[in-house]
Amino acid sequence: MPPIWCAVRPDGTIRIQWQVPDDHLHLEWDETGGPAIAVPPQTRGFGTMVTERSVADQLGGKIEYDWRRNGLKLRVTVPLARLGV
User: Can you give the three-state secondary structure of the chain, one letter per residue?
Assistant: First the structure.
């Protein structure tokens, strides 16, 4: 699976939103318009492992994956204190 799945089609889109409603940064990455996802990936690639380790281990945050048929929705939550804010 390509790193940005929806980018393989000209009508694919990525919507990125973020907010700080409390003492955490909440970021949402929403891909749509790419090829249908029949099943979630069964393995984790290098980029996924680096991202997870950076968010969880270095920043004390968490990542949630939602592998929908029409694209990936990713939610990242990180404490502001760990970002130097």
Answer: CCCCHHHHCCCCEEEEEEECCCCEEEEEEEEECCCCCCCCCCCCCHHHHHHHHHHHHHCCCEEEEEEECCEEEEEEEEEHHHHCC
pTM of the prediction?
0.82
The predicted-structure confidence for 43-83, as pLDDT tens digits, reads as follows: 988 988 999 999 999 999 999 999 999 889 999 999 999 99
Give the domains, in start order, of the chain with CATH numbers. 5-83 (3.30.565.10)
